[in-house]
Amino acid sequence: MRLRRMLFGLLLTFGLVAGNLLGGAQIYAAGGISLYTPFTDISVTPGQTVTFSIDVINNSASIQDVPLNVEGIPGNWTNHLTYGSYAVHKIAVKPNDSKSVDLDVEVPLAVNKGDYPFRVTAGDYALQLNVNVSEQGTYNSELNVNQPNMQGHSDSTFSFTSSLKNRTADKQDYALSADAPKGWDVQFSSLGKNVTSVSVDKNSAQDISIDIHPPAQVKAGTYDIPIHAATTSSSADTKLEVVITGTYGIELTTPSGVLSTDITAGGTRNVDLKVVNKGSADLKNIQLSASTPANWEVTFDQKELKALSAGKSANVTATIKADSKAIAGDYQLNFTASTPETSSDAQFRITVQTSMLWGWIGILIIGMVFVGIYYLFRTYGRR
């Protein structure tokens, strides 16, 4: 009897245990969940958001309900596990089935360049991921120009293309300005319109064209032009370089502007000439020459000017000697000032007058005639 009771008790205990096991409780098979994403290592720049699409795979024969967590990600990074528009913290997957979730990781703007490994866990399973930040991050604004220096003549327009990057977490309004030398004109344009300010969304960039017009008489040289894009709290700056090669221009004239004179046949006349550098580049080795009528001569007190700065002038004296047989009338004489880059001509009208010597000789002959007549009257007039 005692033995029967013991057997009955064992059967009852076994039945209770079996009933509990076969009831609503789920059996979690070891290693039943795994995680999969095709790209486990992604490179981004500071401020970007990277999205990992993760499959939660149930390899077991029963439903798996497991929590999802992101571990090891830097504290100042933002991440979200989502399914559509819903945030996900825990997921249930049918036997031999899978569900997909998205992991959005926002890389901050102020971040060091390098690798940032972390993991996503589903129960006991962990998926190792890595985000590679490809450049050093900042939390400010940047104004970059692909080609910051240009060269040309003073009558050129220098056009630069810049990119204004807002590396902050808020939309910014930037006032545009330039510290150009006096007389220079700097214009900004964006989206085809001239502007003095632009608005740039957070972690975005906007292209800005910068057109620079130098003064007409600017001297040759190198000019630095600082450019600013300023907000109420910060400023993005860059520096442009314009190299003016200069324009070449020369003028040959006289101090008074009069291009005529007179001379006697066989005589000489000094003419003051004025050489003016009308360009924006310095002139060197200015040669002076003259084209004259036959048997005329011209000499210069300076046949060559070694150098003449832009906007400056120099005086030269030319000595003209007329042909001794030149008859009275107007003659043309051309003066030339030339350099390898430019030249200028001045056409002179030279009026040849009768020599005073012949006038005195004529007076002398007339006087001798009167003296001869007087003598004849004195000698033969009484007869």
CATH architecture assignment of the largest domain: Sandwich
- The count of DSSP E runs of length 2 or more, i.e. the number of strands, is 29
**Poorly predicted residue ranges:** 6-30
In CATH terms, what is the fold-level topology of the largest domain?
A: Immunoglobulin-like
Work out the helix count. 2
CATH homologous superfamily heading of the largest domain: Immunoglobulins
Identify the CATH class of the largest domain.
Answer: Mainly Beta
Strand order, largest beta sheet = 1-3-8-5-6
Number of domains: 3
Taking the alpha carbons of the first and last residues, their distance comes to: 219 Å
Task: Please outline what is shown here.
The chain is built from two helices and 29 strands. It is mainly β and 383 residues long.
Your description of this structure?
The structure is a single chain. The strands form 6 sheets. This protein has a 5-stranded antiparallel β-sheet, with no helix packed on it. The radius of gyration is 50 Å and the shape is rod-shaped. The relative contact order is 0.09. It is built from 2 helices and 29 strands. The protein is mainly β. It has 3 domains: 101 residues, Immunoglobulin-like (Sandwich); 104 residues, Immunoglobulin-like (Sandwich); 108 residues, Sandwich (Immunoglobulin-like), CATH 2.60.40.10.
